[in-house]
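Hi everyone, sorry if this is the wrong subforum. Our group has a chain we'd like a structural model of before ordering constructs, and none of us has done structure prediction before. Sequence below.
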Amino acid sequence: MFRITLALMLVMAAYVLPYPAHATETYQTPDEFIAESFSQQPPEPGVVWLQGETSKTVESILGHRYSSLRIRYWQQDQRSAWILEEIGKERPITMGFVISDNKIESMKVLIYRESRGWEIRHDFFLEQFSRATLDSQLTLDRHIDSISGATLSVRAATNLARLALYLAQQVQP
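Answer:
Right subforum, don't worry. Here is the predicted structure as tokens:
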């Protein structure tokens, strides 16, 4: 009887004890992403200040203000790289984007801090964004399939893709 009671208590404890609140995974550092994005020495970073109309548009894309007043980017000709952050459910997701000719050339999850939704880092999800552009309403020109259990992470990634495309348009030479 004692063994059955102990077994039941262990099973119940597995359901009652909280899962780890946040699991931080660094898949690639921002510096590594920038170095990989340019075949030669990366260009010096530029800065977009989030003020005036730019700030309002960024807020409309994200549904809230961005977490800082400026965003760094790296640009060579018509190609730019961006490292952006957005909250998934509770914690920031750090993503890297390369924009070329107003289209997403590549995007990666660099640092993931949530306990769920990490599936957005896989190619099967990220490939949906390949060559995506913005339409006149600042939405992507295609539908992005969600991932069951990762809805907020998918939304964050989609909004960051829109943001990267918008910001790249703002700094075109």
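For your construct planning: The chain is about 35% helix and 25% strand. Residues 108 and 123 are 9 Å apart (CA to CA).
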